[in-house]
Specification:
This protein is mainly alpha-helical. The protein has helices at 3-11, 18-29, 37-49, 70-81, 93-103, 109-137, 142-174, and strands at 16-17, 53-58, 64-68. Among the domains are: 3-81, Winged helix-like DNA-binding domain superfamily/Winged helix DNA-binding domain (Arc Repressor Mutant, subunit A, Orthogonal Bundle), CATH 1.10.10.10; 102-174.
Length: 242
């Protein structure tokens, strides 16, 4: 969320100093903690420079009081209806961590996925519990309704992450990356050799128990020669390959 516009929304309720804005920002948006003081101070300075807020003096503790200007109110109204535009796909830490773990040596990708699934499950349960508490009290005040909406967005987000991690686990299993190997029993390599019990070769020879070659020879009894024909017991081929 834009800290800049969040502060404008809070100032619409009346003039406030920075510390109060920080506290109310956390309550109204359902944040786990207030925004960083330096971040709020920088945002207020930029808003004042742009003519969207103005100073209204200081309080008894010497804290600067800021108020919304007409231009700030107009900017806030426009922001509420302005489409949210993303310059590119967001890449959250879970996705980055998993993407890097796939190619990392000595890292079990399956363990990484399972740990992320456990964390998401705990987060989801916590959000559901908080939502139940808000609903049990019967949200009536605007800040309670706001918190409920934020919690429901986080629940939907956690559910989406859970489905994504389930998909990752299934995908890695299919690609044989979950065990950190490029092959399993019966795959392209067994015991370090690039061979299997198939018809490409047995015991180093290029032969199988099939027509066309037996015991290293490329002839069979009665092949291309029978009694009285082109070859008999040695005609054409005899105990040797063509």
């Amino acid at each position: 969320m834009s800290t800049r516009h969040g502060l404008l929304a809070l100032l619409e309720d009346g003039p406030r100093h920075g510390s109060r804005l920080r506290a109310e920002f956390a309550v109204r948006t359902g944040a786990a903690r207030p925004p960083d003081p330096g971040r709020v101070c920088a945002a207020l300075g930029a808003l004042e420079r742009d003519g969207l807020v103005a100073r209204e003096g200081v309080d008894a503790a010497g804290r600067v009081i800021y108020a919304l200007t007409g231009a700030g109110r107009a900017e806030l109204r426009d922001w509420y209806t302005r489409p949210v535009r993303h310059t590119g796909p967001s890449c959250e830490e879970r996705a980055v961590r998993l993407a890097l773990a796939v190619a990392a040596s000595g890292v079990d990708v399956r363990e990484v996925v399972e740990e992320q699934r456990r964390q998401v499950s705990e987060e989801l349960q916590d959000y559901v519990r908080q939502r139940a508490e808000v609903l049990a009290r019967g949200p009536e005040r605007p800040e309670e309704v706001a918190r409920l909406l934020v919690l429901e967005q986080r629940i939907c987000h956690a559910e989406g992450e859970s489905r994504w991690l389930d998909h990752c686990a299934a995908r890695l299993l299919r690609l044989h990356l979950a065990d950190g190997e490029d092959g399993t029993d019966g795959a392209a390599g067994t015991d370090g050799a690039n061979r299997t019990d198939r018809t490409d070769g047995t015991d180093g020879a290029d032969r199988t128990d099939r027509p066309g070659g037996t015991d290293g020879a490329d002839d069979t009894d009665g092949t291309e020669g029978t009694d009285g024909t082109e070859g008999t017991d040695g005609a054409g081929t005899a105990d040797a390959a063509e």
